[in-house]
Design goal:
alpha+beta, 4-stranded mixed beta sheet, 7 helices
């Protein structure tokens, strides 16, 4: 069992914010699109984050994972073993009379990809293209799994019922459950002759280009679901979904908090005292003139409406918050020093 805390480099008592911060740092480091990225490490980090960022999954992991209670389900009396997330399934199966779920066993697997964007990119919808090697429907049998022109026969394993009995072992003992037949995947029939292209799967591996529209206002770590764009299902099963995880690069000027942007602007002491205007270029690329009242103190925050990031799920735009910091010079010319000394005599 993997130690997810070690993978993310956090302690077992780490807060959700600490876990998220560690994940962002490592995901940015190992992102496959980066020159020195590492896809295997990126997937491992993502797997750890998915487990520890969810309260229920984290509780199960802490209690039953090898790094949690110290008891490894892959050891001592459990042939083949099972993962910690199977624990809840045991109760479900035992207390519903052992009848297996009727979920679509032929459904295609989901696929997760990632995209890295700049803060400027989220100001409007972006079309992104992904080249993915995935399962697609077999063109010869059209997903049926049988060689064209051949018939189907009753499955010998389940005798046409699509279900079989199997024995399961758990920490509570042995119990029987009814499950979907693995030979015919619950169909009750098998082709007399399987398709010679897909070997009866109804799908084949192929590289496919998928175009996805990333909506304006998308936030970091947000996951977008694209239905039916995952792996094709087996023998006519439903397609899986494509999940796009968004990463947004840090900006040199603006810090995003929700739909609002925050920035810091240094101004000279003289401007803070007498007042005037400061110029700032917004994230939209427009020149902004911010009025600084006389007597402005360091740390004062000005709000500029509508200059933030578009709302993701509704109309409107966030705001820009500009923090003013007074720049105190470390060195003064002789003339500047004389002027300040004169002001000091006047009580300033």
């Amino acid at each position: 069992m993997k130690d997810y805390y070690q993978i993310l480099g956090v302690s077992r008592g780490a807060s959700k914010e600490e876990i998220k911060k560690a994940y962002r740092k490592l995901a940015h480091k190992y992102h496959p699109d980066k020159k020195d990225g590492d896809e295997a490490k990126f997937k491992e980090v993502s797997e750890a984050y998915q487990a520890l960022s969810d309260d229920q999954k984290r509780q199960q992991y802490d209690q039953f994972g090898s790094a949690g209670s110290g008891f490894n389900f892959h050891q001592g009396g459990f042939e083949g073993g099972f993962e910690f997330n199977d624990f809840g399934d045991i109760f479900e199966e035992m207390f519903r009379g052992g009848r297996a779920s009727t979920s679509d066993i032929n459904r295609g697997e989901d696929i997760e990809v990632s995209v890295e964007m700049s803060l400027e990119d989220v100001l409007q919808d972006q079309e992104k293209k992904f080249r993915i090697k995935k399962f697609v429907t077999c063109s010869r049998c059209h997903g049926d799994g049988a060689e064209p022109g051949t018939s189907r026969n009753q499955c010998a394993s389940c005798r046409g019922t699509g279900r079989v009995q199997e024995m399961k072992r758990s920490i509570f003992g042995t119990y029987t459950r009814e499950t979907i037949c693995p030979e015919c995947s619950g169909e009750g029939q098998k082709p007399d002759k399987v398709c010679n292209v897909c070997s009866g799967e109804g799908r084949v591996k192929k590289e496919e280009e998928i175009e996805v529209v990333i909506p304006a206002g998308v936030d970091v770590d947000q996951i977008l679901k694209v239905p039916n764009k995952g792996n094709a299902g087996r023998r006519g099963g439903r397609n899986g979904s494509l999940y796009v995880r968004v990463f947004i690069r840090e900006h040199s000027v603006f810090v995003r908090k929700g739909d609002n942007l925050h920035a810091v602007k240094s101004i000279p002491f003289s401007l803070a005292v007498t007042g005037g205007e400061v110029e700032l270029r917004s994230i939209q690329g427009k020149k902004l003139l911010i009025e600084i009242p006389s007597g402005t103190s360091s740390g004062k925050i000005f709000r500029v409406s509508g200059k933030g990031v578009p709302h993701f799920s509704r109309t409107g735009v966030g705001d820009l918050f500009l923090k003013i910091v007074i720049d105190v010079p470390k060195k003064l010319s002789k003339r500047q020093k004389e002027l300040l000394e004169s002001l000091a005599k006047e009580g300033l």
